[in-house]
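We treat protein structure as text, and this decision shapes the records that our systems exchange. Below, we set out a record of this kind in full and without editing:

***
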Amino acid sequence: MTPTLVRHHAKTGASASVDTGSRARDWAEIQERMLAPLYEAVYRRLEVGAATRMLSLGCGSGLALLIAAGRGARVTGIDTDPERLALARTRLLPDPGGDAGPPDAGPRLLDGVPATATGHEPYDLITAFTPIGCSADDAEDLVGALGSAVSLADRGSTVVLTGWGPPERCATAAVLGVAARLAEGTCSPGAGGWLGARRDDLEDVAFRAGLKPDGSGRVACPFGYADMDSAVRGLLSTRLFDAAVRATDRSQVEKEVAQALHPHRRRDGTVWMPNVFRYLVCTT
Protein backbone atom coordinates (compact mmCIF):
# COMPACT_ATOMS: atom_id res chain seq x y z
CA MET A 1 0.00 0.00 0.00
CA THR A 2 1.64 3.24 -1.16
CA PRO A 3 1.11 6.36 0.96
CA THR A 4 -1.26 8.84 -0.65
CA LEU A 5 0.15 12.28 -1.30
CA VAL A 6 -2.20 14.68 0.46
CA ARG A 7 -1.92 18.44 0.11
CA HIS A 8 -2.63 20.69 3.11
CA HIS A 9 -2.59 24.43 2.66
CA ALA A 10 -2.17 25.72 6.21
CA LYS A 11 1.09 27.65 6.50
CA THR A 12 4.02 26.69 8.63
CA GLY A 13 6.02 29.19 10.64
CA ALA A 14 5.48 31.16 13.81
CA SER A 15 1.89 31.96 12.90
CA ALA A 16 0.93 28.30 12.56
CA SER A 17 -1.25 26.77 15.23
CA VAL A 18 0.77 24.60 17.58
CA ASP A 19 -2.02 23.32 19.82
CA THR A 20 -2.16 19.62 20.43
CA GLY A 21 -5.50 19.31 18.65
CA SER A 22 -4.00 20.64 15.41
CA ARG A 23 -1.01 18.36 15.80
CA ALA A 24 -3.29 15.36 16.31
CA ARG A 25 -5.16 16.24 13.11
CA ASP A 26 -1.88 16.54 11.23
CA TRP A 27 -0.97 13.09 12.50
CA ALA A 28 -4.29 11.59 11.44
CA GLU A 29 -4.52 13.35 8.08
CA ILE A 30 -0.88 13.38 6.97
CA GLN A 31 1.50 11.14 8.89
CA GLU A 32 -0.30 8.09 10.24
CA ARG A 33 -0.93 6.59 6.81
CA MET A 34 2.83 6.30 6.19
CA LEU A 35 2.87 3.18 8.36
CA ALA A 36 -0.12 1.53 6.65
CA PRO A 37 2.15 -0.89 4.69
CA LEU A 38 3.51 -2.11 8.04
CA TYR A 39 0.03 -2.74 9.44
CA GLU A 40 -1.05 -4.55 6.27
CA ALA A 41 2.07 -6.75 6.19
CA VAL A 42 1.65 -7.82 9.82
CA TYR A 43 -2.05 -8.58 9.39
CA ARG A 44 -1.40 -10.66 6.26
CA ARG A 45 1.34 -12.65 7.96
CA LEU A 46 -0.80 -13.34 11.03
CA GLU A 47 -4.00 -13.90 9.02
CA VAL A 48 -5.90 -11.37 11.12
CA GLY A 49 -9.62 -11.88 10.67
CA ALA A 50 -12.94 -12.54 12.37
CA ALA A 51 -11.39 -14.86 14.95
CA THR A 52 -8.86 -12.24 16.09
CA ARG A 53 -9.23 -10.37 19.38
CA MET A 54 -6.68 -7.56 19.14
CA LEU A 55 -5.37 -5.12 21.74
CA SER A 56 -3.47 -2.18 20.25
CA LEU A 57 -1.06 -0.31 22.53
CA GLY A 58 -0.65 3.33 21.57
CA CYS A 59 -3.43 3.14 19.00
CA GLY A 60 -3.19 6.84 18.11
CA SER A 61 -5.95 8.07 15.83
CA GLY A 62 -6.96 4.53 14.99
CA LEU A 63 -5.85 3.70 11.45
CA ALA A 64 -4.32 0.34 12.40
CA LEU A 65 -7.51 -0.52 14.30
CA LEU A 66 -9.66 0.50 11.34
CA ILE A 67 -7.71 -1.78 8.98
CA ALA A 68 -7.92 -4.70 11.41
CA ALA A 69 -11.65 -4.15 11.99
CA GLY A 70 -12.11 -4.11 8.23
CA ARG A 71 -10.67 -7.63 8.20
CA GLY A 72 -13.27 -8.68 10.78
CA ALA A 73 -11.13 -8.49 13.94
CA ARG A 74 -12.56 -7.39 17.28
CA VAL A 75 -10.33 -4.51 18.31
CA THR A 76 -9.51 -2.57 21.45
CA GLY A 77 -7.23 0.44 21.33
CA ILE A 78 -5.48 2.24 24.18
CA ASP A 79 -3.74 5.59 24.08
CA THR A 80 -2.83 8.37 26.50
CA ASP A 81 -3.22 11.18 23.94
CA PRO A 82 -6.81 12.45 24.28
CA GLU A 83 -6.76 14.38 20.99
CA ARG A 84 -5.62 11.39 18.93
CA LEU A 85 -8.06 9.15 20.77
CA ALA A 86 -10.93 11.53 20.01
CA LEU A 87 -10.13 11.26 16.30
CA ALA A 88 -10.01 7.47 16.60
CA ARG A 89 -13.50 7.52 18.10
CA THR A 90 -14.86 9.45 15.11
CA ARG A 91 -13.40 6.79 12.82
CA LEU A 92 -14.46 3.68 14.66
CA LEU A 93 -17.44 4.28 16.95
CA PRO A 94 -21.07 4.73 15.85
CA ASP A 95 -21.47 7.25 18.70
CA PRO A 96 -18.10 9.03 19.05
CA GLY A 97 -19.35 10.99 22.05
CA GLY A 98 -20.40 7.87 23.93
CA ASP A 99 -18.41 5.58 26.17
CA ALA A 100 -16.16 2.76 25.10
CA GLY A 101 -19.10 0.41 24.70
CA PRO A 102 -19.70 -3.00 26.28
CA PRO A 103 -17.10 -5.74 25.82
CA ASP A 104 -17.27 -7.58 22.47
CA ALA A 105 -19.95 -5.19 21.14
CA GLY A 106 -17.56 -3.62 18.64
CA PRO A 107 -14.41 -1.51 18.66
CA ARG A 108 -13.36 -0.26 22.10
CA LEU A 109 -11.20 2.84 22.62
CA LEU A 110 -9.78 3.50 26.05
CA ASP A 111 -7.81 6.36 27.53
CA GLY A 112 -5.02 5.22 29.78
CA VAL A 113 -2.90 2.13 30.35
CA PRO A 114 -3.45 -1.55 29.48
CA ALA A 115 -5.03 -2.26 32.86
CA THR A 116 -8.10 -0.30 31.67
CA ALA A 117 -8.77 -2.91 28.96
CA THR A 118 -10.27 -5.47 31.35
CA GLY A 119 -13.77 -6.91 31.13
CA HIS A 120 -13.06 -8.40 27.71
CA GLU A 121 -12.63 -11.92 26.43
CA PRO A 122 -8.86 -12.60 26.56
CA TYR A 123 -6.94 -11.12 23.65
CA ASP A 124 -4.96 -13.32 21.28
CA LEU A 125 -3.03 -10.51 19.54
CA ILE A 126 -1.29 -7.52 21.08
CA THR A 127 0.26 -4.93 18.78
CA ALA A 128 2.65 -2.09 19.53
CA PHE A 129 2.84 -0.23 16.22
CA THR A 130 4.56 2.87 17.59
CA PRO A 131 8.16 2.22 16.44
CA ILE A 132 10.67 2.06 19.25
CA GLY A 133 14.21 3.32 18.85
CA CYS A 134 13.15 6.95 18.80
CA SER A 135 14.08 8.05 22.31
CA ALA A 136 15.86 6.81 25.41
CA ASP A 137 12.61 6.04 27.21
CA ASP A 138 10.39 4.43 24.61
CA ALA A 139 11.72 0.89 25.08
CA GLU A 140 11.41 1.17 28.87
CA ASP A 141 7.85 2.47 28.55
CA LEU A 142 6.90 -0.35 26.20
CA VAL A 143 8.30 -3.03 28.54
CA GLY A 144 6.09 -1.63 31.30
CA ALA A 145 3.00 -1.52 29.08
CA LEU A 146 3.57 -5.07 27.88
CA GLY A 147 3.78 -6.29 31.45
CA SER A 148 0.19 -5.21 31.99
CA ALA A 149 -1.10 -6.11 28.55
CA VAL A 150 0.17 -9.70 28.51
CA SER A 151 -1.87 -10.49 31.61
CA LEU A 152 -5.00 -9.76 29.55
CA ALA A 153 -4.12 -12.24 26.81
CA ASP A 154 -4.42 -15.97 26.42
CA ARG A 155 -1.31 -18.01 27.04
CA GLY A 156 0.54 -18.46 23.76
CA SER A 157 -0.93 -15.31 22.26
CA THR A 158 0.94 -13.28 19.67
CA VAL A 159 2.64 -9.96 20.37
CA VAL A 160 4.01 -7.74 17.61
CA LEU A 161 6.72 -5.16 18.30
CA THR A 162 7.86 -2.64 15.69
CA GLY A 163 10.84 -0.38 15.17
CA TRP A 164 12.77 1.64 12.61
CA GLY A 165 15.02 -0.25 10.26
CA PRO A 166 18.76 0.38 9.86
CA PRO A 167 19.53 4.11 9.50
CA GLU A 168 21.15 3.50 6.12
CA ARG A 169 17.81 2.13 4.89
CA CYS A 170 15.76 5.01 6.31
CA ALA A 171 16.06 8.31 4.49
CA THR A 172 14.00 9.99 7.22
CA ALA A 173 16.65 9.21 9.84
CA ALA A 174 18.81 12.17 8.80
CA VAL A 175 15.83 14.51 9.00
CA LEU A 176 14.89 13.23 12.44
CA GLY A 177 18.49 13.85 13.49
CA VAL A 178 17.60 17.55 13.45
CA ALA A 179 15.51 16.93 16.56
CA ALA A 180 18.44 15.56 18.53
CA ARG A 181 20.81 18.29 17.34
CA LEU A 182 18.51 21.18 18.24
CA ALA A 183 17.70 19.68 21.65
CA GLU A 184 21.33 18.88 22.45
CA GLY A 185 22.43 20.20 25.82
CA THR A 186 18.88 20.72 27.08
CA CYS A 187 18.07 17.11 27.99
CA SER A 188 19.72 13.76 28.56
CA PRO A 189 21.09 11.85 25.53
CA GLY A 190 18.32 10.22 23.54
CA ALA A 191 15.58 12.22 25.25
CA GLY A 192 15.56 14.83 22.50
CA GLY A 193 13.03 12.95 20.44
CA TRP A 194 15.31 10.86 18.21
CA LEU A 195 17.86 8.28 19.25
CA GLY A 196 18.15 6.05 16.19
CA ALA A 197 17.47 2.36 15.85
CA ARG A 198 19.86 -0.28 17.14
CA ARG A 199 20.07 -3.77 15.72
CA ASP A 200 18.63 -5.68 18.70
CA ASP A 201 16.17 -3.13 20.09
CA LEU A 202 13.11 -5.29 19.52
CA GLU A 203 14.69 -8.49 20.81
CA ASP A 204 15.84 -6.66 23.93
CA VAL A 205 12.31 -5.45 24.66
CA ALA A 206 10.93 -8.95 24.05
CA PHE A 207 13.46 -10.49 26.43
CA ARG A 208 12.76 -7.94 29.18
CA ALA A 209 9.00 -8.41 28.78
CA GLY A 210 9.27 -12.20 29.02
CA LEU A 211 8.23 -12.80 25.39
CA LYS A 212 9.51 -15.46 23.00
CA PRO A 213 10.58 -14.21 19.55
CA ASP A 214 8.97 -16.23 16.78
CA GLY A 215 9.95 -14.55 13.52
CA SER A 216 10.48 -11.08 12.11
CA GLY A 217 10.14 -9.10 8.92
CA ARG A 218 10.98 -5.84 7.20
CA VAL A 219 8.52 -3.62 5.37
CA ALA A 220 9.12 -0.68 3.05
CA CYS A 221 7.23 2.36 4.32
CA PRO A 222 8.12 5.36 2.17
CA PHE A 223 7.13 8.74 3.53
CA GLY A 224 5.45 10.65 0.69
CA TYR A 225 4.08 14.19 0.92
CA ALA A 226 2.34 16.42 -1.61
CA ASP A 227 4.52 19.41 -0.76
CA MET A 228 7.08 20.73 1.70
CA ASP A 229 4.46 22.21 4.02
CA SER A 230 2.72 18.86 4.43
CA ALA A 231 6.05 17.14 5.03
CA VAL A 232 7.05 19.55 7.81
CA ARG A 233 3.65 19.39 9.48
CA GLY A 234 3.51 15.62 9.22
CA LEU A 235 6.94 15.10 10.76
CA LEU A 236 6.30 17.55 13.60
CA SER A 237 3.07 15.71 14.37
CA THR A 238 5.13 12.66 15.40
CA ARG A 239 6.09 14.45 18.67
CA LEU A 240 9.74 13.57 17.99
CA PHE A 241 10.56 17.27 17.64
CA ASP A 242 8.91 18.43 20.88
CA ALA A 243 12.16 18.79 22.82
CA ALA A 244 13.70 20.70 19.91
CA VAL A 245 10.75 23.11 19.88
CA ARG A 246 11.12 23.67 23.62
CA ALA A 247 14.87 24.25 23.23
CA THR A 248 14.50 26.74 20.35
CA ASP A 249 11.09 27.62 18.91
CA ARG A 250 8.70 26.11 16.39
CA SER A 251 9.70 28.45 13.58
CA GLN A 252 13.36 27.51 13.92
CA VAL A 253 12.53 23.81 13.98
CA GLU A 254 10.29 24.11 10.92
CA LYS A 255 13.01 25.98 9.03
CA GLU A 256 15.70 23.40 9.80
CA VAL A 257 13.43 20.45 9.07
CA ALA A 258 12.57 21.99 5.69
CA GLN A 259 16.27 22.40 4.95
CA ALA A 260 16.93 18.76 5.86
CA LEU A 261 14.06 17.70 3.59
CA HIS A 262 15.35 19.65 0.60
CA PRO A 263 17.38 16.72 -0.88
CA HIS A 264 14.19 14.64 -0.87
CA ARG A 265 12.08 17.19 -2.75
CA ARG A 266 11.30 16.13 -6.30
CA ARG A 267 10.88 18.35 -9.34
CA ASP A 268 7.09 18.35 -9.04
CA GLY A 269 7.33 19.70 -5.46
CA THR A 270 6.49 16.43 -3.74
CA VAL A 271 8.70 15.05 -0.98
CA TRP A 272 9.63 11.37 -1.01
CA MET A 273 11.77 9.42 1.47
CA PRO A 274 12.20 5.64 1.29
CA ASN A 275 12.25 3.91 4.68
CA VAL A 276 12.30 0.38 6.03
CA PHE A 277 10.58 -0.63 9.25
CA ARG A 278 11.10 -3.85 11.14
CA TYR A 279 8.63 -5.97 13.12
CA LEU A 280 9.19 -8.82 15.57
CA VAL A 281 6.55 -11.50 16.15
CA CYS A 282 6.57 -12.95 19.67
CA THR A 283 4.49 -15.30 21.78
CA THR A 284 3.50 -14.90 25.40
